[in-house]
Structures are given as C-alpha cells and as structure tokens.
Design brief:
The structure is a single chain. The chain is built from 5 helices and 9 strands. Helices cover 22% and strands 32% of the residues. It has 155 residues and is an alpha/beta fold. The strands form 2 sheets. A 7-stranded mixed beta sheet has the order 1-2-3-4-5-6-7. A two-stranded antiparallel ribbon has the order 8-9.
Length: 155
C-alpha cells in the first residue's frame, strides 16, 4: 500500500509518496484523494526534484504540506490543472523553475486560473501548458531544467 513516507529507488530515480493521508482521504472529495509524489532524478549535474501534486485542492494540499513540509523542487506539476482551488501556497513553497499545467484548450472550467499564472510569474517559474505547448520535453542541464515544446497543443 502506498502511504506517505513510502519510498522506492530504481537506478537513478527515487520517488516518495507525500500523500494523501489515509485518515483524511477516507471522507475526502475525490480530488483530495489523488496521489502526490516527489521524484528525485540523479543527473550528471546533481539531483533534480519533480513534485507531482495530483488534483488536490487548496485545503487538502495545505494540510498535507503542513504535515510533510517540502523544500524547493525544480519541476512542479500544478495541482488541479492550475485551478484557483488548486491553491497558490504550493507554488510558493515548492518554488519551481518549471511549472507544468495539464489542461485542455477552452475548457469549461477556465483552467488555469489567472491567479495561478500570476504567482508562477512572481516566483519566476517557466510555465508550460498542454493547451499551448502540447507535449513538453524536460532536459536537465548544468543551469537547471530546460523545457521544450514537442508537439501539438492539447485541444
């Protein structure tokens, strides 16, 4: 069973389960039960961390980050498609160099929310949205993470 603190290593890749916490997930909304992981990639230039926030919404993510504080990560997969209820505190705590937002073009929810994009800009994160960039290739360089759009945007 995957619970917070569970870790596995496979070669140069390590992952740790950050959440959800079973005691909260039992009665939570479906988004708040999504798996939250932190990956660490050992590269020739050092360790690169990738925080995958799932679809957790603000209150659940804030509680999770209080229980399991996180340091910066070079890459953050935005919580809940960059929605307002995905929160911005996670952006401030993780302080990514690259923010990935999985979202379809002209979605009826209006994702990502302008506040999410504003905070990303304030912290200096480079934003890649699937509705604009399509598939994104992440390359680990001595200067950090380089993102490159590879494909047709998701419509």
């Amino acid at each position: 069973m995957l619970e917070p603190g569970t870790q596995q290593v496979a070669g140069d890749i390590r992952f740790e389960v950050i959440g959800p916490e079973a005691k909260f997930a039992q009665f939570a909304e479906p988004n708040d039960t999504s798996l939250v992981l932190r990956f660490s990639f050992a590269t020739k230039n050092g360790i690169v961390d990738f925080f995958a926030a799932g679809d957790m919404e603000t209150e659940a993510m804030d509680r999770l980050l209080k229980l399991h504080p996180q340091g910066p990560a070079a890459i953050l997969k935005a919580s809940h498609h960059g929605a307002r209820n995905g929160g911005t505190e996670i952006l401030k705590q993780i302080h990514p160099q690259v923010l990935l937002i999985s979202v379809g073009e002209d979605n009826s929810y209006g994702h990502p929310h302008p506040q999410t994009l504003e905070v990303a800009q304030q912290i200096g994160a480079e934003v890649f949205r699937t509705d604009q960039s399509g598939t994104v290739l992440l390359t680990f360089t001595p200067e950090g993470v380089l993102g490159t759009s590879l494909g047709t945007p998701v419509r």
